[in-house]
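tool_call predict_complex ligand=adenosine-3',5'-cyclic-monophosphate
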Amino acid sequence: MAGQTTFTMIKPDAFGAGNSGAIIKIIEEAGFKISAAKVTKLSSERAGQFYEVHKERPFYNDLVSYMSSGPIIAMVLKKDNAVEDFRTLIGATNPAEAAEGTIRKLFATSIEANAIHGSDSDDNAQIEAGFFFSRTERF
Ligand code: CMP
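tool_result ok
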């Protein structure tokens, strides 16, 4: 059965452009409940840890410096079928391929600066939520 939790980050491009409020409005209107949220800034070391799975990719170093370039909003979200429904809401990784009305289509500027992250599995949602929040910080 699909889980009820996903994890997201509003990335430095979207946060810096002042789009956080508009993005959170879309997320809430789609039926997600915010279980935990914080504004934070990743060090390059922490960004490197978060994206460890991409370590061998050619874009890894750029991704780490981009993700540590400014504040983000980390959030744990709750909804039935959370992971899949959230990935539909945010759209394809590359905004040029994202469907109309998706968050990335509306706010992303490139495949790297793509406005928002969404967990790709229930297991990763738990790992990623745990990277930013203790159990007692989640409602
Ligand atoms: P996200 O889904 O958060 O997780 C991996 C991130 O790596 C992705 O969003 C993009 O920000 C970035 N990314 C993925 N593919 C590429 C690529 N081909 N070139 C640059 N950045 C990428």
